[in-house]
Design brief:
Layout lengths: L16 E7 L3 E3 L3 E10 L6 E18 L7 E17 L9 E10 L8 E7 L2 E17 L4 E6 L1 E3 L8 E9 L4 E9 L9 E10 L5 E16 L2 E15 L5 E10 L7 E2 L3 E13 L5 E4 L15 H7 L9 E2 L32
Parallel strand pairs: 2-10, 5-20
Antiparallel strand pairs: 1-3, 3-6, 4-5, 4-8, 7-8, 8-9, 11-12, 12-13, 13-16, 14-15, 14-18, 17-18, 18-19
Length: about 350
């Protein structure tokens, strides 16, 4: 059985030693402990070993790729966000390791500042980017000859903050619309999970001489990425819903539901940030639209999908990369093969002033 959570990683009964890893849950939130246990089986009475350890690591990785005039510019960067070793057993005082099956519980703390597990892509007029944050733990037995290792990935989510409603209003006197338009927006809450529906109440007082064709609600994604000193930013529409508008010199209340389907979470890392906001739009006939963007970010704390190691290897291949910037000490190939054939020609300058406080 090759399941990551709650089930045993199968090993042949004819092997002299084997390691199996259990995690108590499928994913964990920042600010809490990851818990589980390692099972060690030894059938060799002559086994000599030193330690049984658990190595934990989390890595951010980014690529930025130029298009058009900047198609020959590129950059790549890694950053280690989590690294620790959890000792499980010390066999140095035993001439030989006892035979049998032994279980070792473990726990380690996830700092509140850690970014969520994430894998995404973004593309704009001046470039494109791919970015990820991946967590993995490895149990290993140090022994004479070849060490025994067992790896498993785990999912990290932002801790859920206070759930509260979001509201805002906007008043615009449009010369093209020949009058004033007042819009008020109420969103039921600020935190959602992928697949959930966000209910948005839009109230419009159209004092202008032009009718409003449609009232729309858009989910916008703001992506900021940096790699090797190069910065990239793009805002794009993820989902939208619309309904009938309001005629001139009249009022109307509209409720829209926008489904947040298969969306990767909000993520605040050192190399990339992903934020979401809901925007209400009055689509006015023959005049500039009136937009109201929620001041509070809409948080999506739980990853819709946790990329597997195989998916990372398929997307990113070190052999296709001619140059990289790496500020992590990725010892003994812990994240080997996580680079990308996503890139052919890559970057040097895209967009300035990223990660500002706006």
């Amino acid at each position: 059985i090759n399941a990551e959570y709650g089930l045993l990683f199968f090993r042949s009964p004819f092997m002299s030693q084997s390691l199996s890893v259990y995690l108590d849950r499928e994913h964990f939130f920042t600010g809490e402990f990851v818990t589980g246990r390692v099972s060690f089986s030894n059938n060799d009475p002559g086994l000599e070993a030193r330690y049984l350890h658990l190595k934990v690591k989390g890595v951010e990785r980014t690529y930025v790729v130029g298009v058009g005039e900047k198609k020959n510019t590129w950059a790549q960067q890694d950053h280690t966000v989590l690294k620790c070793t959890v000792p499980l057993a010390d066999f140095r005082s035993h001439p030989k390791v006892p035979t049998g099956v032994f279980e070792y519980p473990f726990s380690f703390y996830l700092s509140p500042e850690l970014p969520s597990s994430h894998h995404g892509k973004a593309e704009g007029a001046k470039g494109k980017a791919e970015f990820a944050c991946y967590y993995e733990l490895k149990a290993y037995l140090e022994k004479e000859g070849s060490d025994i290792r067992e790896k498993v990935s785990f999912k990290v989510s932002h801790a859920v903050q206070q759930i509260k409603p979001i509201s805002g209003s906007k008043e615009k006197d449009s010369k093209m619309a020949l009058g004033k338009i007042i819009m008020k927006v109420d969103i039921e809450k600020n935190i959602f999970i992928s697949g959930e529906k966000a209910k948005v109440q839009v109230s419009v007082d159209n004092k202008s001489s032009r009718g409003i064709d449609h009232i729309k609600v858009k989910l916008m994604r703001d992506v900021k990425v940096k790699a090797g000193g190069i910065k990239f930013r793009v805002e794009s529409e993820v989902e939208r819903e619309k309904t009938k508008g309001v005629s001139s010199k009249s009022k109307g209340d509209k409720e829209l539901e926008i489904k947040l389907k298969d969306i990767q979470p909000t993520c605040h890392g050192s190399l990339f940030r992903v934020d979401y906001s809901l925007v209400a739009v009055c689509d006015i006939k023959m005049a500039k639209d009136v937009e109201l963007k929620s001041k509070s970010k809409v948080l999506l704390p739980i990853p819709a999908h946790n990329p597997t190691k195989a998916e990372f290897k398929k997307v990113w291949d070190h052999k296709k990369i001619k140059k990289k910037t790496n500020d992590s000490d990725d010892d003994d190939g812990f994240f080997e093969g996580l680079a990308g054939d996503f890139i052919e020609n890559v970057i040097s300058s895209v967009v300035d002033s990223i990660f500002s406080d706006d």
